[in-house]
Design brief:
The complex is a heterodimer. Helix content of chain A is 0%, strand content 50%. Chain A is mostly beta strands. The N and C termini of chain A lie far apart (37 Å). Helix content of chain B is 0%, strand content 52%. The chains are: A mainly beta, B mainly beta.
Chain lengths: 113, 113
């Protein structure tokens, strides 16, 4: 049973570029959440998708957008990259919008130069 | 005031000792509480969840919750070098839908031989 999978594992971009990160949830899970973790900090909630709709959003600018597909996989898009967007981006899945337990993928390490 | 506060550490304990990790939270609407372990460069791994006041034990781990004091703790008995990691406290407000997790900055634990 595959867990939460994310791709790519590492990514290097330059300021102003755009990036797309991908996530496949754990089997049987239909809810996907994205978090940003800067070095030395705890993960910060970006947004959550359920039934292909954004259900909840954290304090992130509109440069951060997402999508969920019918197979429950999800993408995180970041436009106009800033140096401060360098972080570990984590995807978490859960079996339902109100279910408590979230399981994290290995993350994508994004470096913006 | 941060929503979830943890002492960043490092907390150093000798092998075989009890490690005590603490967390306070500000939102009285928080109803679910979690401890995640994160090894350097890896993703968070859920080790304990607790929803009601009191203690919850799982192997060497015990989570303690006091909602009146807005306090949650994690005890690790018989600490092992493999327990050396950053421990993240996370809380969730179930009411209102969604399952956004709010994390603290984490406490670094070092178990010394």
């Amino acid at each position: 049973d595959a867990g939460v999978t994310q791709s790519p594992t590492h990514l290097i971009k330059t300021r102003g570029q755009q990036v797309t990160l991908r996530c496949s949830p754990k089997s049987g899970h239909d809810t996907v959440s994205w978090y940003q973790q800067a070095l030395g900090q705890g993960p910060q909630f970006i947004f959550q998708y359920y039934e292909e709709e954004e259900r909840q959003r954290g304090n992130f600018p509109d440069r951060f957008s997402g999508h969920q597909f019918p197979n429950y996989s999800s993408e995180l898009n970041v436009n106009a990259l800033l140096l401060g967007d360098s972080a570990l981006y984590l995807c978490a899945s859960s079996p339902g919008l109100a279910k408590n337990i979230q399981y994290f993928g290995a993350g994508t390490r994004l470096s913006v130069l | 005031q941060k929503e979830v506060e943890q002492n960043s550490g490092p907390l150093s304990v000798p092998e075989g000792a009890i490690a005590s990790l603490n967390c306070t939270y500000s939102d009285r609407g928080s109803q679910s509480f979690f401890w995640y372990r994160q090894y350097s460069g890896k993703s968070p791994e859920l080790i304990m969840s607790i929803y009601s006041n009191g203690d919850k034990e799982d192997g060497r781990f015990t989570a303690q919750l006091n909602k009146a004091s807005q306090y949650v703790s994690l005890l690790i008995r018989d600490s092992q070098p493999s327990d050396s990691a950053t421990y993240l406290c996370a809380v969730k407000r179930t009411a209102g839908g969604g399952n956004k997790l709010t994390f603290g900055t984490g406490t670094q634990l070092k178990v010394e031989l």
